[in-house]
Specification:
By secondary structure, the chain is mainly beta. The chain contains 2 helices and 21 strands. Strands 2, 3, 4, 6, 7, 8, 9, 11 and 12 form a 9-stranded mixed sheet that branches. A 4-stranded mixed sheet has the order 5-1-10-13. Strands 14, 17, 20 and 21 form a 4-stranded mixed sheet that branches. Strand 2 and strand 3 form a beta hairpin. The longest helix is centred in the N-terminal third of the chain and has 29 residues.
């Protein structure tokens, strides 16, 4: 009887070890159940030399069902000693990493961009006052519908629209900030980029698709990047400073493509006849 019990104990031990081994392999294959999100800030520019905005971080509302009444807000701080950012410089290839964090896989249904209190502009080499139009409106809340899968990385962009966000007042030294932004995930959007010469023309570049318009500026070297484009046909309009002539052309944005266009050389108007 003791020998039989001994054999049963051995069998039980072998089965237990086998189950533990299978379980550990299954857990390893399933991964952690977390996705990595990178929150990146870019700019749809305005007519300012510099636009210094203070950021405190972002919050993501995640859950498993968009219709759920309750969800979990995840706070991702902008972890810098100096949290003022010259948003006007985030054109061309300029991108600011606001935060990075692993979050549970599932849906993201809202994004909050959290602002601080200290903002100012530089226009025509002069510093200008910039204050929130509504002192309580320090949160930009965006409705989104993103799904993140475990063990994958996602770049979530927030495009801060300076032109729509900053308004002049009767006093030319003071401006009001009413933040406007959009968001997109790079995984399913397109990028059109290239170079415009001469860089001194400092053009505004528009990508227009029906009622959807994406705007950017070129950087000091003439580089530009139109990010977050929906797939489809766009009209690209390049509006440089005088005396250079406007340029317009049509192009197709392919889903998820990162396309570099041919260099564009802006033309001067023909000389007037004498």
């Amino acid at each position: 009887m003791r020998f039989k019990s001994y054999l049963q104990a051995i069998r039980f031990t072998i089965v237990f070890i086998a189950m533990a081994f299978v379980g550990s392999c299954t857990d390893a294959n399933e991964g952690t159940g977390l996705a990595l999100v990178n929150i990146r800030l870019i700019d749809a520019p305005g007519d300012f030399d510099e636009a210094w905005i203070e950021f405190e971080g972002v919050e993501l509302l995640r859950g498993t069902d968009r219709q759920a009444v309750e969800g979990e807000w995840i706070h991702i701080p902008y972890d810098q000693v100096d949290r003022q950012v010259d948003v006007a410089k985030l054109v061309g290839e300029g991108v600011l990493l606001l935060g990075r964090q692993e979050i549970p896989a599932g849906g993201i249904f809202k994004i909050r961009l959290l602002l601080g209190n200290d903002h100012y502009l530089v226009k025509n080499d002069n510093e200008r006052s910039l204050t929130l139009e509504d002192p309580n409106a320090k949160v930009i809340e965006l409705d989104v519908n993103y799904r993140v899968e475990r063990n994958l990385s996602y770049d979530i962009y927030i495009d801060f629209d300076l032109e729509k966000s900053i308004r002049p007042t009767a006093d030319s030294t003071r401006f009001k900030l009413m933040p406007r932004a959009r968001s997109f995930v790079s995984n399913d959007r397109s990028i059109l980029k290239g170079k415009i010469q001469p860089a001194a023309a400092k053009p505004v570049i528009y990508a227009v698709q029906d009622k959807d318009t994406v705007t950017t500026l070129s950087d000091a070297q003439g580089n530009y990047s139109l990010r977050g484009l929906q797939p489809g046909k766009y009209t690209i309009s390049i509006m440089p400073r005088k005396p250079y002539r406007d340029t317009t052309f049509a192009i197709e944005a392919e889903k998820g493509a990162d396309s570099t266009l041919e260099n564009i050389v802006l033309r001067l108007p023909p000389s007037s006849p004498k």
